């Protein structure tokens, strides 16, 4: 609101006509509300929000005379004549009761005192940070929340007049974050099982269309429980992050590395036959073993076993079966002494 405005005191005549005509329907000085339904919002603004309202003028509304319930449309002119004859004419100048305005000078410029309900700047900045900026690096200022600017909304939210649930950009940001959390494992940064499941289904469909095979690698840390028991869970998390990094380092951008659960990882290699998948699997196995030595763990403590399975278009295995085939190959690798790579049955 402006620091000062011109005050007009009036009786039933209301604000001067020229003052009303010089303003738009909604401006910084005036807001014109049509219908008695607007009185509730005005009362809430005065009694609850404690807004600094300079003047409230209830005007007769002739715009509603064309409502069907008031009569036929061809009698609209007569209804307006009746209203014009019975209601007092609006004054061109302020109509002032002397006893009311005895100590007030009409049309005097005066400062509007603030009500003291200014929110802390830190609280406003925190809300603006939660909302974030638009792609152009500036505040959204979309007005969808009912406020002209994000700062005006943040001020109202800091005072408890609204909440972030009324801010569409904030809700979109929350939805994107939730989607990202559902797609990315928080500890390793790899894809989640949900993404893996959807990707496998799409790869099966793609392979059936194009005739290109793909391979799946099932990777499991051999002595992870022993690492946790002897060196602590934080050390175990460090090993998980290191193994995940090595899994992602040997695949292409078109491939997928996902955390299956616990200390197990799955790699999906598109357009790859079993021979190429075996090469990737051995690189992962060797680099994870080297990572364990780099972190200072005893020789042979941090290793992985890898099971490899190939999906052959038209011959299977199906979406879940290719994972099962890779899992069976993983158990064969562990049965062979761990720190090994083994293949599963080709889809036949």
Features:
348 residues, alpha+beta, 3-methyladenine DNA Glycosylase II, Chain A, domain 3, Alpha-Beta Plaits, 3 domains, two-stranded antiparallel sheet, 11 helices, disordered N terminus
- Which series of helices and strands comes N to C? EHHHEHHHHEHHEEHEHE
Strand content: 5-15%
Low-pLDDT segments = 1-13
What is the first-to-last residue Cα distance?
Answer: 77 Å
CATH class identity of the largest domain: Alpha Beta
**What spatial order of strands do you see in the largest sheet?**
4-5-3-6-7
**Which homologous superfamily in CATH is the superfamily of the largest domain?**
Reverse transcriptase/Diguanylate cyclase domain
Largest sheet: 5 strands, mixed
Structural class: alpha+beta
Please estimate the helix content. 40-55%
What's the Cα radius of gyration? 36 Å
> Which fold name is given in CATH as the topology of the largest domain?
Alpha-Beta Plaits
- Rounded mean pLDDT is 80
Count of extended strands: 7
Number of domains: 3
The CATH architecture of the largest domain comes to 2-Layer Sandwich
Sum up the overall morphology in one term.
elongated
Number of helices: 11
């Amino acid at each position: 609101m402006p620091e000062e405005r011109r005050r007009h005191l009036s009786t039933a005549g209301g604000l001067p006509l020229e003052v009303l005509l010089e303003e738009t329907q909604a401006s910084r000085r005036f807001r014109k509300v049509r219908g008695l339904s607007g009185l509730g919002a005005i009362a809430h603004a005065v009694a609850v929000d404690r807004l600094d309202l300079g003047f409230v003028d209830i005007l007769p509304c002739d715009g509603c005379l064309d409502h069907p319930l008031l009569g036929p449309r061809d009698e609209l002119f007569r209804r307006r004549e009746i209203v014009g004859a019975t209601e007092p004419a609006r004054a061109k100048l302020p109509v002032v009761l002397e006893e009311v305005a005895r100590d007030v000078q009409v049309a005097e410029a005066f400062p509007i005192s603030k009500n003291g309900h200014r929110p802390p700047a830190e609280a406003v900045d925190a809300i603006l940070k939660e909302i974030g900026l638009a792609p152009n690096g500036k505040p959204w200022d979309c007005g969808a929340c009912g406020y002209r600017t994000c700062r005006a909304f943040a001020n109202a939210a800091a005072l408890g007049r609204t909440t972030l649930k009324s801010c569409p950009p904030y809700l979109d940001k929350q939805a994107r974050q939730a989607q990202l959390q559902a797609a990315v494992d928080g500890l390793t940064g790899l894809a989640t099982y949900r993404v893996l499941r959807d990707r496998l289904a799409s790869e099966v469909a793609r392979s059936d269309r194009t005739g290109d095979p793909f391979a799946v690698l099932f990777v499991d840390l051999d002595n992870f429980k022993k690492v946790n028991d002897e060196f602590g869970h934080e050390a175990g998390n460090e090993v998980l992050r290191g193994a995940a990094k090595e899994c992602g380092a040997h695949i292409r951008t078109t491939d997928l590395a996902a955390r299956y659960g616990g200390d197990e990882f799955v790699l999906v290699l598109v357009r790859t036959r079993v021979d190429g998948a075996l090469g990737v699997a051995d690189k992962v196995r060797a680099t994870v073993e080297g990572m364990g030595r780099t972190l200072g763990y005893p020789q042979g403590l941090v290793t992985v076993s890898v099971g490899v399975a190939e999906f052959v278009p038209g011959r299977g295995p199906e979406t879940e079966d290719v994972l099962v085939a890779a899992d069976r190959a993983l158990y064969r690798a562990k049965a062979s002494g761990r720190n090994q790579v083994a293949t599963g049955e080709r889809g036949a």
